Backbone:
């Protein structure tokens, strides 16, 4: 039995069909972890969908209503870059409930792990870049509202800048945002995070890991009560939408650095998986599974 729960729901799949975002990856990760014996069925827990009350602590009521009643404008759907469906909306609400549950689990188990989420391009009043609801921001507001934590640190290691995260928490002294991303990539406009690590094209393991370690040392001086880790698979050298050159081993080391930094300071960590668009979807699945393995290693050793 794992020392932490894996939060997952079969309806995480956004049902996008032939799309560069392989939202079937959530089921593939679940199945792979079972098939290889890393996890047992009892290690998985299903979340409830986030409540509208939770979502509305971050998002504008008009945006929420248009999502739920199917009245997005063509321009809003174009900006979202995924087709509209009720299954898509349900998946975002479930993923957001999953990140809230992962945050609560982190307080009990030191690590909470959502096999989904990390939708960091969502803004209060619109969606962008495959992200309709900002699950991480909603989860932060939920656990703050419940007086479980005061200060949160967002460590975003997706290849794309966390523009929605930066915009939502601008000026908020209770949340420190750290985004480590390829500069010459989506989005074109990058609102400033508290800590932005703008990486040049083609950066590989050594530079990436060195800069991540240095940034985490600075960020931990914030003394967060919880870390929200967006463990994107898209810094991988074989990713369709990325331009960095990290190897599988480099991404494992990245995960270890984040987990060891947080746990070493006795700060619980809530994990979401964020992006991953490898030419071979099996590579994306392996990278995400390796993050779960790194979490277990950080807690109990190899």
Residues:
């Amino acid at each position: 039995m794992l020392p932490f729960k894996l939060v997952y729901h079969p309806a995480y799949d956004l049902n996008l069909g032939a799309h560069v975002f392989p939202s079937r990856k959530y089921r593939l990760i679940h199945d792979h972890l079972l098939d290889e014996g890393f996890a047992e069925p009892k290690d998985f827990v299903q979340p409830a969908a986030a409540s509208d009350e939770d979502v509305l602590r971050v998002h504008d009521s008009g945006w929420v209503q248009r999502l739920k009643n199917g009245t997005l404008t063509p321009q809003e759907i174009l900006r979202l870059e995924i087709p509209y469906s009720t299954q898509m909306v349900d998946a975002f609400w479930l993923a957001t409930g999953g990140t809230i549950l992962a945050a609560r689990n982190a307080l009990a188990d030191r690590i909470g792990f959502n096999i989904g989420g990390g939708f960091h391009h969502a803004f209060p009043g619109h969606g962008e870049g495959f992200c309709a609801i900002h699950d991480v921001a909603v989860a932060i507001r939920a656990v703050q509202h419940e007086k479980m934590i005061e200060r949160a640190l967002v460590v975003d290691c997706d290849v794309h800048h966390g523009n929605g995260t930066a915009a939502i928490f601008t000026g908020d002294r209770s949340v420190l945002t750290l985004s480590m991303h390829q500069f010459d990539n989506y989005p074109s406009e990058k609102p400033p995070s508290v800590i932005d690590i703008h990486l040049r094209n083609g950066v590989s393991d050594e530079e990436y890991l060195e800069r991540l370690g240095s940034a985490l040392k600075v960020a931990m001086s914030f003394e967060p009560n919880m870390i929200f880790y967006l463990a994107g698979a898209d810094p991988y050298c074989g990713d369709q939408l990325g331009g960095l050159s990290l190897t599988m081993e480099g991404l494992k080391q990245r995960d270890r650095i984040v987990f060891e930094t947080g746990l070493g300071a006795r700060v619980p960590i809530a994990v979401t998986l964020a992006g991953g668009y490898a030419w071979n979807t099996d590579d994306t699945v392996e990278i995400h599974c390796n993050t779960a393995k790194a979490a277990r290693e950080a807690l109990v050793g190899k």
Observations:
- The first strand starts at residue 6 and ends at 7.
